[in-house]
Amino acid sequence: xxxxxxxxxxxxxxxxxxxxxxxxxxxxxxxxxxxxxxxxxxxxxxxxxxxxxxxxxxxxxxxxxxxxxxxxxxxxxxxx
Length: 80
Hints:
Mean pLDDT: 84
Low-confidence stretches: 1-7
Number of strands: 0
Order of helices and strands: HHHH
Shape: globular
Largest sheet: none
Distance between the termini: 27 Å
Helix content: 55-70%
Radius of gyration: 13 Å
Strand content: under 5%
């Protein structure tokens, strides 16, 4: 099967979207992100990145995600 067809047919659950929205709100409030927040943010970003061809994270979100990942002992580098 063509990989591009897989990307187009991918869906995201409402719970993932909701968790991602709450995580974005946490970022705006300066609250810490937990692993569920990070997973949802990455899932939603991946979903839209496959359609748009670029990340949908703002520079503030990238910084907050990087800080949260480091707090959890995970190194993160976004490839442009």
